[in-house]
Structures are given as structure tokens and as C-alpha cells.
């Protein structure tokens, strides 16, 4: 309690500044301001231009769960399946994890999740390679894998003793990635999922989780339905503040698991801690002289506060405030064996839909436990970057138009059928008085219909990746554009409508 009171007192004594700047730094006309935990204060922090104009971020899932590489990153909790645990969702499916583990590695009392850590070596991990790849992909920001639900910290943490510097890889993965990314001019932050750790593991005498020797990884022994306590929230808060102080992150990703304490038990500890962390982060950023971003999922905060994040495309319309959706490159969040990546055209259809609605795409990659990335994911990022070289002028720094577009496009969430989309779908973005129209299928008749674009009244239409002016006619509110005989560009096509 004394530490908590000292922390709060120190926070209240901060006297800091806030205003926006396109390069991420504050202008010379700063307004003296201190952020607190109230809605009005948190909501007054504007999303910086580097984020809202950057449109594309990359992050990764990487921890000891990459070693078993079985089905998904929830292996650490599902391997401890118990048929009398009321918290288990889809028990028949969850039981397959325990069955697989015991058949492959033996008794859960002798070989538990902790025993994957020495096998998690990252012997071929190269932060410079990832920084160069993220740069080539055309991304503006990156989030390093700091800590997942499993509770294994990927930095030299003083709060979490079970970390990647003291054991396993014996290296500061967060620090290496942060340094390498920033040398490439990429805004760099951390991805955090620690808000669910307090309830992640099942404790039974037949599991190694029961042994207090391993509480630094699994947490203190608790019953299945025990609610969270203030100590759990304070541990999460301490972890978040340590990351803020150690790495001065440009961006923080907070996973939706932090909501569980209130949603399931009506305990406000984590929700209150969330607001303290955000206020502290915003206030600290002023001392660093840069603008930062925090994204949140589910009900961790309220709309209008920070950046709302989701694992699906927003269904309707255009959001007034920048937001974000995150998807995987290959359908798995963590490495689960060799598999192909999503087709680049599927990723691009999702991407332009998000941007047309004032959203960003945060795309996940999943390295192997030795630290390398498979060629399928690497090639996807390279193809994405090549497309951005041609079409990025209508993506970066763009804003939504009067409408986001017409027709349905796919989401990449949960292995959905990425080929389910309307072939005549169109999306719009705008920048500097220019309207950009995006279409996802090359029409066989070579005539492209741009719904509502007649309201823009362009004088010329030029293909991105080409210089020739395209012929067009106005048909009510629509434009009918005559496409050239030979296709320009690839995958998803863009044309530029100008008034010059």
C-alpha cells in the first residue's frame, strides 16, 4: 500500500504539457496540462498524426508457446485442462491440448509450461532483419512482443522474474527490437496481454502449477472461481509502468483480457488501474517530448478514449476517431508449424476497407521458436510493401471521403473465408483535394463503375502506377471509367480523381 500511495502522489505532482505535431513532437505553442483518470481528461488526448496518417502497423506473437507450436497460442492454459474447472470453454476441444501434451511430453506434474522455456532459445533471432522487413512492408509502427497471457516477460523485468533475459533466450527481445526499429525510423512500442494472467492457469495437485516454487510464472495458487484482488491489478500496473519507463514506447497495445476482472466478477481493480496507467503514460510522454498512442479492446475503456481496437472490421460507416483492427498474416497468432500466409489480395481488401473507414491495420506475424520467420509470411510483407510503393500515396496521410464505399469486403478474422467479398466493391480515400477510388476486381468489360464519385466532379482520372488519363462519363451520381487494355498494378487497383 505504501508503494501505491507513493506512486499516486508522484503522479499527482507531475506538471506536464500536451499538444500535437505531425512529426510526433510538440510544437512551441504548448498548453500546460496534466492528464488524470477522468473521462474528460483522457478523451482530450488527441491521436497523433504519425499514427492516424501511418495506417499500417506490424506486431508479433512470440513466447515459449512457440515451442510446442500446437494449434494456437492458448496452449499454456489449455494444456492444464481439468474436467471439473467451470471456466473451461469448449471442453471437448480444450481436452485435446492436454491429451496432446501428455502424449508428447509426459506428466503435467513433471513437464509443465515452465519446461518449454529452456527450449525457447531464439538462437537465430535477428532484430535488424525484422526492422528492415517492417520498413520494406511500408509500416509506420511496430509493437514488440512484451508479455502474453502466459506471464513470461520478453525483457529484463524487475517485476516479472521469469523473463527472457534471465532464462530461455537470455536476451532482451523488447530492447533489441526497439533499438533496431527506431534506427529504421519506425515508431516502436510494446504488445501486452498481461491483464488476463491472474486467471490464466489452472491449479491442481497433479499439475506443476501447484508447486509454489513456480509462482513467479504461474502466479499464486488460487481456486478456479476466485475473483481478482487489488494485488493482481497492482502487479499488472507495475508491469505496464516498467515498460513505459524502460522503453518510452511510442505505442502500447493492451489486449482485451484486462476486461475479464470486471466483466466476470464486477471487480473494478483492473479497470481503475488501466486509467492510472494511461494517465501516467500520457504524462510521461510529455517529458519525452513526443506523442504516443495506446489502443484498447472490448470494454477496457470508453469510445473516444485512446484508440479503439478490434479483431474485426467495423460493420458500418466511418468512425470520427481513428481506430484499429488487428489480424494475422496466416490465420495463427503464434507459430503453429509451417503454413502458408493469406493471399496478398485478401490482406489488401481488408486494408483498404479499414483505411476508408478511418481505421488502421495492425498485422501480426508469428516467428518460429528459433526466432526466424517463414518465407510465406516474409513474402506477404514484401508484397505488401511493393503494393504500397505504387499505391501508398492514396493510403498514407489520407482521410475518409463522404462515404467509405459500396459493397462488402472480407475480414481476416478467425480463419474466415477470405474469398467472400463483392467483386464490384469500391472504397474511397482522399488527400490534398484528390479522391482515390479502389476496386478489387478487374471488370471483364473494361468499364469500371464508381458509385457516387460523380459528385466529386473530377476533370481527370489517372491510374496509380500509370500516367495516362482514363476516359470517363458521368451517369447520374456515378462515374463510368474506361480502363486500359493492359492492367496496371496488382491485386487491388487504385485510380486518382483530380480537379486540375
TrEMBL record:
Using the record, list the residue span of the signal peptide; answer none if the entry has no such feature: 1-21
Entry keyword set: Glycosidase, Hydrolase, Signal
Q: Which residues form the Alpha-L-fucosidase C-terminal domain?
A: 419-498
Enzyme class, broadest EC rank? hydrolase
Where is each Glycoside hydrolase family 29 N-terminal domain found? 28-393
Enzyme Commission no: 3.2.1.51
Task: Cite the InterPro entries for this sequence.
Answer: FUC_metazoa-typ, Fucosidase_C, GH, Glyco_hydro_29, Glyco_hydro_29_N, Glyco_hydro_b
What does the UniProt function comment say about this protein?
Alpha-L-fucosidase is responsible for hydrolyzing the alpha-1,6-linked fucose joined to the reducing-end N-acetylglucosamine of the carbohydrate moieties of glycoproteins.
Task: Tell me which family the UniProt entry assigns to this protein.
Answer: Belongs to the glycosyl hydrolase 29 family.
PANTHER family linked: ALPHA-L-FUCOSIDASE, ALPHA-L-FUCOSIDASE-RELATED
- What's the protein called, per UniProt? alpha-L-fucosidase
Amino acid at each position: 500500500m505504501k508503494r501505491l500511495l507513493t506512486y499516486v502522489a508522484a503522479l499527482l505532482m507531475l506538471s506536464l504539457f500536451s499538444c500535437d505535431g505531425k512529426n510526433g513532437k510538440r510544437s512551441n505553442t504548448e498548453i500546460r496540462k496534466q492528464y488524470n483518470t477522468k473521462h474528460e481528461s483522457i478523451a482530450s488526448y488527441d491521436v497523433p498524426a504519425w499514427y492516424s496518417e501511418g495506417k499500417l502497423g506490424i506486431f508479433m506473437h512470440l513466447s515459449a508457446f512457440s515451442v510446442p507450436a500446437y494449434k494456437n497460442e492458448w496452449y499454456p492454459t489449455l494444456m492444464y485442462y481439468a474436467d471439473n474447472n467451470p471456466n473451461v470453454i469448449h471442453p471437448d476441444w480444450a481436452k485435446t491440448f492436454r491429451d496432446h501434451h501428455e502424449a508428447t511430453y509426459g506428466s503435467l506434474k513433471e513437464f509443465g509450461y515452465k519446461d518449454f522455456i529452456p527450449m525457447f532459445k531464439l538462437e537465430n533471432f535477428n532484430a535488424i532483419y525484422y526492422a528492415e522487413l517492417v520498413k520494406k512492408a511500408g509500416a509506420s509502427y511496430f509493437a514488440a512482443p512484451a508479455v502474453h497471457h502466459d506471464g513470461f516477460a520478453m525483457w529484463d523485468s524487475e517485476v516479472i522474474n521469469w523473463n527472457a533475459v534471465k532464462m530461455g533466450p537470455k536476451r532482451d527481445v523488447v530492447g533489441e527490437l526497439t533499438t533496431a526499429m527506431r534506427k529504421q525510423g519506425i515508431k516502436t512500442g510494446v504488445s501486452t496481454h498481461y491483464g488476463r494472467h491472474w486467471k490464466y492457469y489452472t491449479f491442481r495437485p497433479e499439475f506443476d502449477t501447484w508447486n509454489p516454487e513456480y509462482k513467479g510464472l504461474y502466479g499464486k495458487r488460487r481456486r478456479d472461481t476466485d475473483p481478482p484482488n487489488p494485488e493482481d491489478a497492482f502487479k499488472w500496473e507495475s508491469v505496464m509502468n516498467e515498460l513505459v519507463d524502460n522503453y518510452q514506447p511510442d505505442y502500447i497495445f493492451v489486449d482485451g483480457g484486462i476486461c475479464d476482472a470486471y466483466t466476470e466478477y464486477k471487480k473494478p481493480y483492473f479497470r481503475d488501474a488501466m486509467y492510472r496507467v494511461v494517465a501516467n503514460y500520457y504524462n510521461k510522454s510529455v517529458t519525452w517530448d513526443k506523442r504516443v498512442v495506446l489502443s484498447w479492446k472490448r470494454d477496457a475503456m470508453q469510445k473516444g478514449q485512446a484508440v479503439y481496437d478490434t479483431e474485426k472490421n467495423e460493420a458500418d460507416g466511418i468512425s470520427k476517431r481513428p481506430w484499429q483492427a488487428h489480424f494475422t498474416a496466416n490465420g495463427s497468432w503464434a507459430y503453429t508449424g509451417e503454413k502458408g500466409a493469406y493471399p496478398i489480395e485478401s490482406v489488401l481488401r481488408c486494408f483498404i476497407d479499414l483505411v476508408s473507414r478511418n481505421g488502421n491495420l495492425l498485422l501480426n506475424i508469428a516467428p518460429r521458436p528459433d526466432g526466424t520467420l517463414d518465407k510465406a509470411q516474409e513474402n506477404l510483407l514484401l508484397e505488401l510493401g511493393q503494393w504500397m510503393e505504387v499505391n501508398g500515396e492514396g493510403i498514407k496521410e489520407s482521410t475518409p471521403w463522404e462515404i467509405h464505399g459500396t459493397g462488402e469486403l472480407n475480414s481476416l478474422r478467425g480463419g474466415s473465408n477470405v474469398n467472400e467479398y463483392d467483386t464490384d466493391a469500391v472504397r474511397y480515400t482522399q488527400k490534398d483535394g484528390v479522391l482515390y477510388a479502389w476496386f478489387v476486381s478487374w471488370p471483364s468489360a473494361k468499364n469500371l463503375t464508381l458509385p457516387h464519385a460523380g459528385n466529386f466532379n473530377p476533370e481527370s482520372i489517372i491510374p496509380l502506377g500509370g500516367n495516362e488519363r482514363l476516359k470517363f462519363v458521368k451517369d447520374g451520381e456515378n462515374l463510368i471509367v474506361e480502363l486500359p487494355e493492359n492492367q496496371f498494378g496488382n491485386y487491388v487497383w487504385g485510380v486518382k480523381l483530380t480537379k486540375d
